């Protein structure tokens, strides 16, 4: 795909000359996840995942959409990786589908494994850094049938899976993330039922979270042993909560919002303890924790992945919790999420102060959905261009404030299956026509490519 010659450096994407984004060692990449793009759910021995089951149940996903075909990436992976080259990015973040690579008895499924070997091999040939997430929500259904993340044994099965994949891909992966967004798996999956497996109970959510974090902590030493040269980390989605008023109750509500969204995950990982305030919010929901678990969970990390999307304005609910008060007149995305780049900067600076053992950070997801249309072969996604630019500026200002941030991944490379919202919400910098599977470079992608071309030329030019 050729770049449009009309894109000149006066285009509004280029960051200021003192921005860290010009540094060659600051990684700029794009991200995807297996269930959202692969399709081919019944091919080459792949087993059912909880999202196959959940999305096949009427009423769970908008318009009855499923990941059965998605972006057909399983068959189109080579040309999709070429899109990364067109984008000029340094890195690609992908996830492995657990039910594609391992059967119920824990035996490898070589055909599934070979798919990822080919894919990651090609990324290496292209000189791209590879960030691999082991669990981006597609739990094998047979494990859910035994209790899923409510069953402690799932954590040990996850370590087996991490063992298999890190032996198979040793030396090929630059960074392993154990889990993507355990908050979503635990809270949306087991706390409010919005995601697979669709259970709704706060006590389930805290227990599922504990087992997810235990899975992470059990897998980290396995990954270290099998693939010593790579980075090991985890990816957390974080939320900014701001108080609707200066009242003590509303300020407390905003604090509790951030405890529930951030400290619930980051405290056990970085302080080896759950935040006490979580159980003020959800009294009586303390998970069952065995001796040694918190040590396991708090194993040192090489990096922390941060996913950020929006801010939530809250007030006290008059009891122990918070309730959202949507702000009128603010800019929002197709998801209805408020665009608030300062929230990203403030959270990063706050984490740097709160956690003495904060590892280097990669922004592993940031981006927005818009109702993008192809008109005369082009997609003008001007709101996304401005969104990316403002969030990258927020990252740069956190770096200038002393936070060690090493890279940024756009969510997402392609429009894809947006979970309970199906295919309606478009997050990609490449548009996907789901009828024909045609990919069209959006204007945001053109500008990212142009900026990176310029950055690479500058970085390699003789002084
Ligand atoms: O599409 C998701 C992704 O799978 C996880 N992080 C948030 C994205 C947008 O909702």
From TrEMBL:
The organism's place on the tree of life at top rank: Bacteria
Keyword ATP-binding recorded: no
EC annotation from Swiss-Prot or TrEMBL: 3.2.1.21
Enzyme class: hydrolase
InterPro entries xrefs: GH, Glyco_hydro_1, Glyco_hydro_1_AS, Glyco_hydro_1_beta-glucosidase
Catalytically driven reaction(s): Hydrolysis of terminal, non-reducing beta-D-glucosyl residues with release of beta-D-glucose
Family in the record: Belongs to the glycosyl hydrolase 1 family.
NCBIfam families to which the protein is assigned, alphabetical: BGL (TIGR03356)
Protein name: Beta-glucosidase
UniProt source species: Caballeronia udeis
């Amino acid at each position: 795909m050729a770049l449009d010659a009309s894109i000149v450096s006066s285009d509004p994407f280029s960051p200021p000359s003192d921005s860290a984004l010009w540094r060659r060692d600051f990684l700029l990449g794009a991200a995807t996840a297996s269930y959202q793009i692969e399709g081919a759910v019944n091919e080459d021995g792949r087993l059912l995942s909880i999202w196959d089951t959940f999305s096949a149940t009427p009423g769970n996903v908008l318009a009855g959409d499923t990941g059965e075909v998605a972006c057909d990436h399983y068959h189109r992976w080579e040309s999709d990786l070429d899109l990364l080259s067109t984008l000029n990015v340094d890195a690609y973040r992908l996830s492995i589908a657990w039910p594609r690579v391992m059967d119920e008895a824990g035996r490898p499924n070589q055909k599934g494994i070979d798919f990822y070997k080919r894919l990651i091999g090609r990324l290496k040939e292209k000189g791209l850094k590879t960030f691999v997430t082991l669990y981006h929500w597609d739990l094998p259904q047979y494990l859910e049938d035994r209790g899923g993340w409510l069953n402690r044994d799932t954590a040990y099965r996850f370590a087996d899976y991490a063992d298999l994949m890190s032996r198979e891909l040793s030396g090929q992966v630059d960074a392993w993330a154990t889990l993507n967004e355990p908050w979503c798996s635990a809270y949306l999956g087991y706390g409010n039922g919005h995601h697979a497996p669709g259970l709704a109970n706060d006590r389930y959510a805290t227990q599922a979270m504990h087992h997810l974090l235990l899975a992470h902590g059990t897998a980290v030493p396995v990954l270290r042993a099998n693939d010593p040269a790579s980075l090991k980390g985890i990816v957390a989605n974080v939320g900014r909560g701001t108080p609707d008023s200066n009242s003590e109750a509303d300020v407390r509500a905003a604090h509790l919002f951030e405890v529930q969204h951030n400290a619930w995950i980051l405290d056990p990982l970085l302080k080896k303890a759950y935040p006490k305030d979580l159980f003020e919010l959800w009294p009586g929901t303390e998970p069952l924790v065995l001796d040694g678990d918190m040590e396991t969970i708090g194993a040192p990390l090489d990096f922390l992945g941060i996913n950020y999307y929006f801010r939530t304005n809250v007030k006290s609910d008059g009891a122990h919790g918070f309730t959202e008060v949507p702000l009128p007149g603010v800019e929002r995305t197709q998801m209805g999420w408020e665009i608030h780049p300062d929230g990203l900067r403030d959270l990063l600076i706050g984490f740097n102060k709160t956690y003495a053992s904060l590892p280097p950070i990669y922004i592993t997801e940031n981006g927005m959905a818009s109702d993008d249309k192809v008109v005369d072969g082009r997609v003008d996604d001007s709101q996304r261009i401005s969104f990316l630019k403002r969030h990258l500026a927020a990252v740069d200002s956190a770096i200038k404030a002393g936070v060690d941030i090493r890279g940024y991944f756009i969510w997402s490379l392609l429009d894809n299956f947006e979970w309970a919202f199906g295919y309606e919400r478009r997050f990609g910098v490449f548009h996907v026509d789901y009828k024909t599977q045609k990919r069209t470079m959006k204007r945001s992608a053109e500008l990212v490519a142009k900026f990176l071309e310029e950055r690479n030329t500058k970085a390699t030019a003789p002084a």
